[in-house]
Design a protein that fits this description.
By secondary structure, the chain is mainly alpha-helical. It is 75% helix and 0% strand.
Length: 171
């Protein structure tokens, strides 16, 4: 298991995303044969989703992120739930289907915000930003604009420049 994880990390660091996906898939399958560690499984499935997304495999990445959402829900993993929600929404990109609102994604984003609580954090700013983008084609313009504004305000308050860039991109 450790060798598969290391190989996945190494491939990721070398921008060999398809190879990384191969190794992370092996690691997850190995967990199927052993006593399950839900935190490890969730983190590996998140890593798998991220490298699939970077490899240009959005459908396959969505499957992994949806599995991570399920694991995070069952085990009360707030940070992993939020990371999975961001991944379901395209990660660092804002690639959304034209003229459609992804209600499944919005449900997971809203659930993530509730789980994160009202405390400011870079992760909360990113989830707010992604929620604003998910609402782009919705008729609820007021909610979209307020959420985008809140994302920027939170990112500025916590001083997280990466989250601020993400939030500003969502406007």
């Amino acid at each position: 298991l450790a060798a598969f994880v290391r190989a996945g990390h190494q491939a990721t660091s070398q921008v060999a995303h398809e190879e990384a996906a191969f190794w992370y898939e092996r690691a997850v399958r190995t967990l199927d044969l052993t006593d399950d560690d839900p935190v490890l499984r969730c983190n590996l499935v998140l890593a798998l989703g991220e490298v699939r997304l970077r490899a240009g495999l959005p459908s396959e990445s969505r499957v992994a992120f949806t599995e991570a959402v399920s694991i995070a829900r069952r085990h009360g993993m707030t940070e992993q739930l939020a990371r999975a929600a961001l991944g379901m929404g395209g990660g660092q990109t804002f690639d959304i289907p034209a003229f459609a609102v992804d209600s499944e994604l919005l449900t997971v984003l809203d659930e993530s915000l509730t789980a994160l609580g009202p405390e400011d954090s870079g992760l909360r700013a990113r989830v707010l930003g992604r929620t604003a983008v998910a609402l782009y084609f919705s008729e609820d313009r007021e909610r979209r604009d307020a959420t985008a504004r809140q994302a920027v305000e939170v990112a500025r308050r916590v001083g997280d420049e990466g989250a601020l860039a993400y939030a500003l991109s969502a406007r």
